[in-house]
Amino acid sequence: MARTIQKIEESITGKLQTSFSLSTSAASEWRSWVHCVAYAIHMFELALDTFKAETEVLAARSVAGTLSWYNERCHEFQLGYDLTFDTDTGRLGYDVMDESARIIKVASVIPSEDGTVVFRVATQDEEGNIVPLSDTQLRNFTDYIEAIKFAGIRTSVISTYADTLRYELTVYYSPSSTLDFVRRSVSEALDGFRASRRFGGTVYRHKMIEAVTETPGVVTAELRALSSKSHWEDSYRDIGAYADLYAGYFNYAGDCEIDFVPLNDTRE
How wide is the angle at C-alpha 110 spanned by C-alphas 84 and 226, nearest 5°? Predict the structure, then answer.
């Protein structure tokens, strides 16, 4: 993990002062050079952290049989195409890559308590809405999973109507931003959060808060309540830190509550 500039400066300064007699002035030239070098080292360590994170993601996706690997394979499914065996890579795939035939737009892969690997998938209609697979699409995708899965692995494919997420949210915004601008920005942020469910099929409470607080004009936010239910359930279940979605994706309830409070109101 990258060290802060201050920690790097302290490390450099400590080593210099044990070897040289240096000016103690805070405005001395050598301290300016220490800061420049510390900043460069800090940026380099940040780059290393980013490289490490990206490498770990690629490694997880490339290891056959992992949940990440299965998730990537879901998005590679092409409706109407036959699988062929690649003798070079030793895996099943398609001779032609056709993005228009890749109908899986939402996929989550989670193991159940009995060891079954559960695939939750959905597609997109002509209006851009996330919807369940048709019977034909579901049958073809299930056959695809049966073909690519590892021997001895039990699988189950679910494609159903979206779960419903209900929230009560208070957004504290800067008075320097107009309320209309903040409303629109927060609405777009919540839509983006809903659309970003590519991995895992799990809703994390803190990530929803982050999506809102990272919005321009928003200072902070309080998620007062968060609950969900599947299409087949009558009542909502409260969400603590996180919740797994039955369908793997969700839509917001029509009775969600969101209040906007200028930051100055919190200081009264």
Answer: 135
Residue 218 contacts by C-beta under 8 Å, 6 or more apart in sequence? Answer: 171, 172, 173, 174, 182, 185, 186, 212
pLDDT (0 to 100) of residue 96: 93
pLDDT in tens, 197-236: 554 678 999 999 999 999 999 999 999 999 999 999 999 9
Paired sense of beta strands 155-158 and 237-238, if any = unpaired
Domain range summary for the chain, segments of one domain joined by +: 5-62, 67-158, 163-267
Q: Model-level pTM greater than 0.85?
A: no
H or E stretch covering 189: helix 179-195
